[in-house]
Amino acid sequence: MAGTLFDKVWDAHHVRTLPNGQTQLYVGLHLMHEVTSPQAFDMLHARGWTVRAPHRTFATLDHIVPTQAQQRPFADQMAEAMTAALERNCRRHGIPLFGLDSGLQGIVHVVGPELGLTQPGMTIACGDSHTSTHGAFGALAFGIGTSQVRDVLASQSVALSRLLVRRIDVQGRLLQGVTAKDVILSIIRQLGVQGGAGFAYEYGGTVLDAMSMDERMTICNMSIEGGARIGYVNPDDTTVEFLRGRRFAPSGEREFDEAAERWRRLASDAGARYDDRVGIQGEAIAPTVTWGIHPGQSIAIDERLPDPAAVSAGERAGIEDALTFMKFTPGMPLTGTRVHVAFIGSCTNGRLSDLREAASVVRGQHVASHVRALVVPGSQQVRAAAEAEGLHEIFLEAGFEWRGAGCSMCLAMNNDRLVGDELCASSSNRNFKGRQGSPTGRTLLMSPAMVAAAAVAGEVVDIRTVAQGTPTGAAR
Amino acid sequence: MKIETVTGRMVVVRGADIDTDRIMPARFLKVISFEGLEAHLFADDRVEARGQGGVHPFDRPDAAGASILIAGPNFGCGSSREHAPQALRRWGIGAIVAASFAEIFAGNATAIGLVCATVSAEDLDALMAHAERDPPLQVTVDLAQLVVRSGPEWQMSIGMPSATRHALTSGEWDATELLLADYDEVSRVEARLPYLRATSRNA
Ligand code: SF4
User: Using CB atoms, which residue from A42, A121, A227 is nearest to B195?
Assistant: First the structure.
C-alpha cells in the first residue's frame, strides 16, 4: 500500500501501543544541550536508572555558551555550572559531547546535520522545539520536554500520539530576493501559528525540490512556529549528496550506496494519502518580515501593517497588543523603520550559505553608525568554513562583530541581548516579547540577506531594491 | 497518582498565543533544577502590566492559592521548555482550561500531572466571567465527567485527547515506567533498524 514517509518511519519505530492508545516510539538519535538536560539526568539518577543507549545520544553546548571570551571557567557562574553539569553527566554515562575544544561544537540543529548524525528514516528527539529542523533529511524529528528527555535516556523511546500529515506543495519558482526564510514565514502567515497542531508537515513541490539542504533546514526549522511539531522533506539526490562523506554517515562506498538506496525508498509514494493538502505558488511569495510578537504576524515587505479597526473583533486584541508592544502604528510600512541591532545567526539561518548570502550584501559596505551588528555562526565548523572563504573579513571590515558559535542573541541566555526597546533585525525564528533578552526589546524576523541590508542601511529595506554584490563563496 | 478532579479557585490570563518565553523568560532557565522557578512566572508580563498602570492576574491578591488557570487559544506555544509547566505546577496550578494548547506544552504538562483541558470559545468567555466574579468561586475540573463545574450552579463540558485523559485518570501520566515495561520489545525494534546496524559498525 502506498504510504507517506511519515507512515513508513513511524511504523518502523513503533514499539508497542500503550494502554492509553499512544505509541511507544523508538528514538534512533537523541540530541542534547545544556539547558533542558540537567533536570532530566537528576530525575534519572533519583530513580536509579541508567542511560539505555549512550551510543545513540550526542550532546553539544549551544544555548548558554558565551560567543566571545570563551575561556573556562566562564565569567557567568550559572553558564559555567550548566556546562559543568552537562560535562559531568556525559562523562558519567559515556555520552559523546561536542564541547568548545572539539572543533565541532555549535547549535545542536546545525551540528547534527553537518556531522551526518542526522539521516533519512531516523526518529530524532531533542529537548528543543526546533528539532523539526532535522526533518529536512526525511527524518521524523521532534522537540520534547525535560521529562521526556528522561524517558528517552531511560528507555530510548517516547510516548507519542500519531500525527496527521499535511502535504504543503510550493510550486513554480522563487523570484529574485526571495529565500527559504520568506517561504516558511509566508506558510506560517497563511496557515497560522497553530495551524499545524496535530500535524506533521510534509514540504514538497518544485521549489523544495530545487532547494539545497540548508534551505530545506530553514523551512523545516520553523515548522514549530506554525504549530507543527514535525516538518519534513522527502529524501532525494540533494539529501544523499549532502550526506556523502560526512563523519557519521555510513562509511565505505558500498555501505553508503546501500544506505542511499534505502533512503530513497523512504520517500512518500506517489499514491500516498494525506490528511490535508495545501498548495502555494512560489512566484507569489515576496520577501517577508514579521512586524508583531509571534512569527505569524508578518507582511510582505511592500505591504503595510494591519489596521486593527479593519479586522474582526476576534483578531483585534492580538493586533492591538502587538502594535502597542512594537510601538508601531496601524497602516505604516516597515521599510524605512530604523533598526538598532542586526543579528545574523541561529539554527534557522546560521549556516554557511546564510553567511555567504549576508556577506554578498555587505561586501564593501559599512554597517550604519547607529547599528550594533553581529554574526554568530551556527557551529565551529561553519565558522571555520566561512573563515576559509574570507567571509569573516567581509563582515569585520563592514563593522560586524564576528563571534564564536552558539545560539547567542536568538534567545539571549548569554551576554548578547537587546537593551531597552531596541529594534533588532534578526535572522532567527522567534519574535516573542522579551525573546532577545530585554523585556521591552523588539524583533523583526527576516532572511539573513535582509538583515544584512538593514544593518547597512540602518533601517528596514526591501532587498530587491539593493544591488547585491557578486555572490561570495563557491557553490551557488 | 490518579488525577480525577482538580478543585480550587481560578486565575485568568487573557490573550491568544501566550508563549513559553512569556510564561518563563529565558534568563530564568539558567538553573540546574526546577525548584523555585514559580517565583518568575510571567515575570516580564507582570512588569509590563504594572508599567501600564494595571495588575497582572498573577499579582492580584485573590490569585494566591488559585489552582485552575483559565487561558486563551494556543497557550504554551513556542519553546519546548518544561520550565514553564513546572513553574505553573509549583506555583499551585493543578489544571489549565484554555481554548487550545500548543502540542509540546500539553505533552510536557501531562508528563508532570498538570491537567490541560479545552473549552469552546463561547464557554471560555463565560468561564472567564465566572472566574472574575467576586467573591471568587470554587470550581472543579472533572476528568471523569469531562466537565468544569461550580457546585450545582453551572457546568460546561471540557475536551481532552482520550490518551491524555487515560494517562491522568489511570495515574500513568509519568510514562517512564510504562516505557521500561517491555524492554525486550525495544531491543527487537532496535535490532531491526538498518541504520543502527550500519552505525554500530562505524562506532
Ligand atoms: S538558535 Fe535559537 S531557536 Fe535555535 S536552538 Fe538555539 S535558542 Fe533555540
Answer: A121
